[in-house]
Specification:
333 residues; alpha/beta; 6-stranded parallel β-sheet; 10 helices
Length: 333
Amino acid sequence: MATVKDQLIMNLLKEEQTPQNKITVVGIGAVGMACALSILVKELADELALFDVMEEDKLKGEVMRLQHCSLFLKTPKIVSGKDYHVTANSKLVIITAEACQQEGESPPNLVQHNVNIFKLIIANVVKYSCNCTLLIVSNPVDILTYVAWKLSGFPQNRVIGSGCNLDSARFCSLVGERLGVHPLSCHGWVLGEHGDSSVPVWSGVNVAGILLKNLHPALGTDADKEQWKEVHRQAVDSASEVIKPKSYSSWAIGLSVADLAESITKNLRRVHPISTMIKGFYGIEDEVFLSVPCILGQNGISDVMKVTLMPEEEARLKKSADELWRIQKQLLL
């Protein structure tokens, strides 16, 4: 007896169901789910895969939350699994998985713990998607992007850290708040290491091409009576301010990651402040990953912008590079 489907539909063509724009998210915590939802809303993938080693029922529940939104989305296939086979044939793999710091655990031990997690993740991602681009979101993002590059054997253009993309967005948002201008019209870069030691490039902050430094030469310095340095401090502290009452931060990083994914999947060649191998720039001689403005498209990072930094800005970038290299030399890869 013919099924309802057989009576309704006559198949004319046996198609291979190979995705053309598959995106995988590895690590389905708060950040991973925020990345997944942001990617779905921006309609960037023809297949979205979620991978995690969490309990099967919890993983199933998370993917069902997204599948039940299918009527409002245009991603035809959303899958999940604890077997890395679910990640196969991905064009872009976003890694958000990271270890939680245990009570009394030292920062170096925590970094090594994350390295050990990455050894398993990267080996399997490469096995099933050898031509993918890796986008690292896990923290410490600059060090773990270096680790992913080393473990994967991929060319450096295909191993990217989310870096200071969100730091710069927060910075521009706060500049706009002070000026009463939408953040899209405020242009400024936060470069270097993601987090406390990031470097705001005050020399380039502008609105409509008008450099604020020309209007206020003391901008961002200790002599600045308007205390614009507070803008960078607030941008750095904003994540912890969000985490205090909620225990996590997710939506902003999810949208930031989807912004990067859009540049890759649509080959937009937009400029983003993202973490890339910076050896040979600004007097840095070691293999470290730091955020600089990069052109991002279908092949990952195709170009790095030659930003002219003030001597003090360059010195801070070099200091971050030296500290990262000191930590990296101790890692067991």
